[in-house]
Structures are given as structure tokens and as C-alpha cells.
């Protein structure tokens, strides 16, 4: 069985992926070369795509042998689904385990900020109730010391507006979890996703300025490039609500940390949850570490490890199933 990865792939990666599709001969262009890709397509039984849009032209180039379009993605907007249906080609997705791990970390920071978990933990361990003149008493169903430290400004995520800066795989997983908490979800992206995907995923598009002004929590999910270097600067922070929180689980360099420190100190924004920093480990004397309205983590977002293996397994094992005549997983069309 002949399968083609549409995205440029190194020989080492090609060999690695082949381990998860026994009996399948994998091909891929080594560089972004349309002619090289075109030469590989005829006779393919399956194509795999991460970033390349699977158009009707690509399906036609593969010919009548094409039976599966496998997306290395949990979203279906990278495929011409109408063309696939007309040609009788199955389309399948793949859960992105590493992206799910980062999404869970994002939700952790939002939840931690909502209940001031770091401060609550410290005060509980210190026995700070004594400063309030309290003494421990036996509890039962109708007698307890609810919120005994009287922490101010606690809130619920339910009903708040989350603004996602960037809307790739990680932000998609964050949006799904945020909606489960009852949040309204906005997103901004250089290229707006199709309207049917917005409806399906329950998200609304805004440009960056509008998103910053409208969101209760702004969460960053963009790559660190020259274009995004310090994109969240003093001007961007000033557009946010004084009651808003900033969460960053992508890369530290997309935030101007000096501007963020000033915004947190002077009340331009309410707080921040950070898993990434300009310098890592974050320097022990960094001014962010002295602020009570920041929840910090030592770049935990990647999860427990093994994401590359799990994502390759989940993507390419469908090719092995196709070859063996077994039922495919995560089929959307």
C-alpha cells in the first residue's frame, strides 16, 4: 500500500512514522516542492496532511486508488470535504495529545487564578487564620468555616469571555474545554477559519484589538516569530480590561515582560498566569516572582512526555487499519 505525506518530511521522520504503519510504504517530499509532491501522488491509497490543504486537485492527482485522507489534526477544515464525499474518500482526524496537554495547563492557570490557589495554599500552610482571630472547630454538614481566609476577588470561569490569540491545534483544544466550563470563546487569527468551523467549534472571530478589549481572559497560542515578538506589549495590555487576566502557555517572547510587570503593578490588568518566560528557567530575581497577582509554573504545559510518539501512533495507525481492512478511527466523512 502506497501512502503520501503531503508536508515536507525528513527521511529520519519518514522512517519514524513508518513504524506506526506496518506494511505501508510511506513517501513524502523533503522540501516544499509542488512538482516533487505531484510526482508522488499517482496511485496513492492514502494521503496524510498536517498543514497542506487537501484540495480536490490533490485527490484527483492521486487518482481512483485514493481511499483515505488522514489529517494530522483534530480539526477538519484542512480538507475539501465536499470533494472527498463525491469521490467516496474517507476523511479521518487524529487527537493531538501534546496539544491537549498544553490546553489542560491553560485551563489549570485560569482555574488557579480564579480561586487564587497559590496564595490560598500558602496561607493555609502558614496557619494564617490566626491573624484573623480564628480557632479550629469541628465541622459537620451545616457547620464549617467557608472561605475562612476571606480571599478577595475570587470568580468563576462560567459566563466569562475567553479570547484566544491564535487558533491552531492547541487553541482549539482550549476552546473545547473552556466551552465545557460555560465560557464564551473568541479567537483571532491571521486567516479566519471557515464559518462552518466557527459554528461547529462554538467560537467567534474578532480582530486582535477587539478581542483584547472584549475578553475577561486573554490566552496566547501563537508561535514565537519575528512577527509575534513582544506582540503583547504595553499598548496591547492597555487595551485589555482592568479586570482581565493574561495567560501564556506558548512562548515567553511573545510578551514584553517589562510591560507586563508594570501593567500588573499599576492595575492595568488584574493578573496573569504564566507557564513560559523570555528566559528559562525564569531568573530567581525576576520581578514577576515578587507579584501576588501572578500564577507561575516552570513550563509544565508539554505534559507527561511522549506526545510525539502518541501523535504519530494516532495518525499513522489508521493507515495500517486501512491496509488490514479494519474500521478506521476518528472518521468525519
Describe this structure in words.
This protein is an alpha/beta fold. It has two domains: 2-93 and 307-324, Rossmann fold (3-Layer(aba) Sandwich), CATH 3.40.50.720; 99-116 and 153-296, 3-Layer(aba) Sandwich (Rossmann fold). Helix content is 35%, strand content 14%. It contains twelve helices and twelve strands. It has helices spanning 11-18, 34-40, 56-62, 81-87, 97-114, 117-126, 169-180, 195-201, 208-214, 234-239, 257-266, 307-324, and strands at residues 2-5, 25-27, 46-49, 68-71, 90-92, 161-165, 184-188, 203-205, 217-220, 245-248, 271-274, 294-296. The strands form two sheets. It has a seven-stranded parallel sheet with strand order 8-7-6-9-10-11-12, sandwiched between helices. Helix 3 links the parallel strand 3 (46-49) and strand 4. Helix 5 (97-114) packs across helix 7. It is elongated and about 80 Å long. The model has no long low-confidence stretch (mean pLDDT 96).
- Radius of gyration, in Å, reads 24 Å
Give the class from helix and strand content and strand pairing: alpha/beta
CATH topology of the largest domain: Rossmann fold
* Fraction of residues in helix: 25-40%
The CATH superfamily of the largest domain is identified as: NAD(P)-binding Rossmann-like Domain
Distance between the termini: 21 Å
Overall residue-averaged pLDDT value? 96
Helix count from the secondary structure assignment: 12
SSE string = EHEHEHEHEHHEHEHEHEHEHEEH
Amino acid at each position: 500500500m502506497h501512502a503520501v505525506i503531503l508536508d515536507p518530511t525528513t527521511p529520519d521522520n519518514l522512517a519514524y512514522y513508518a513504524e506506526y504503519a506496518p506494511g505501508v510504504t510511506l513517501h513524502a517530499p523533503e522540501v516544499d516542492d509542488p512538482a516533487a509532491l505531484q510526482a508522488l501522488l499517482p496511485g496513492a491509497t492514502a494521503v496524510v496532511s498536517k498543514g497542506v490543504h487537501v484540495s480536490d486537485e490533490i485527490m484527483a492527482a492521486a487518482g481512483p486508488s485514493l481511499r483515505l485522507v488522514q489529517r494530522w489534526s483534530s480539526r477538519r477544515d484542512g480538507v475539501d470535504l465536499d470533494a472527498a464525499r463525491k469521490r467516496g474518500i474517507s476523511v479521518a482526524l487524529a487527537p493531538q495529545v501534546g496539544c491537549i496537554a498544553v490546553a489542560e495547563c491553560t485551563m489549570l492557570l485560569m482555574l488557579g487564578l480564579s480561586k487564587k490557589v497559590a496564595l490560598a495554599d500558602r496561607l493555609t500552610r502558614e496557619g494564617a487564620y490566626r491573624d484573623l482571630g480564628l480557632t479550629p472547630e469541628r465541622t459537620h454538614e451545616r457547620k464549617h468555616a467557608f472561605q475562612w481566609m476571606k480571599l478577595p476577588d475570587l470568580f468563576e470561569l462560567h459566563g466569562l469571555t475567553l479570547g484566544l490569540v491564535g487558533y491552531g491545534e492547541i487553541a482549539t483544544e482550549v476552546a473545547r474545554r473552556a466551552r465545557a466550563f460555560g465560557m464564551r470563546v473568541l479567537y483571532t487569527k491571521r486567516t479566519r477559519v471557515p464559518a462552518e468551523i466557527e459554528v461547529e467549534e462554538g467560537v467567534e472571530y474578532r480582530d486582535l484589538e477587539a478581542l483584547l478589549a472584549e475578553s475577561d481572559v486573554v490566552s496566547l497560542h501563537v508561535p514565537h516569530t519575528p512577527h509575534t515578538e513582544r506582540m503583547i506589549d504595553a499598548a496591547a495590555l492597555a487595551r485589555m480590561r482592568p479586570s482581565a487576566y493574561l495567560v501564556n502557555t506558548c512562548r515567553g517572547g511573545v510578551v514584553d515582560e517589562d510591560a507586563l510587570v508594570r501593567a500588573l503593578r499599576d492595575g492595568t490588568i488584574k493578573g496573569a498566569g504564566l507557564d513560559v518566560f523570555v528566559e528559562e528557567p525564569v531568573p530567581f530575581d525576576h520581578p514577576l516572582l515578587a507579584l501576588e497577582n501572578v500564577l507561575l509554573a516552570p513550563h509544565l504545559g508539554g505534559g507527561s512526555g511522549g506526545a510525539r510518539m502518541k501523535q504519530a501512533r494516532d495518525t499513522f495507525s489508521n493507515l495500517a487499519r486501512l491496509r488490514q481492512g479494519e474500521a478506521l478511527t476518528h472518521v468525519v466523512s
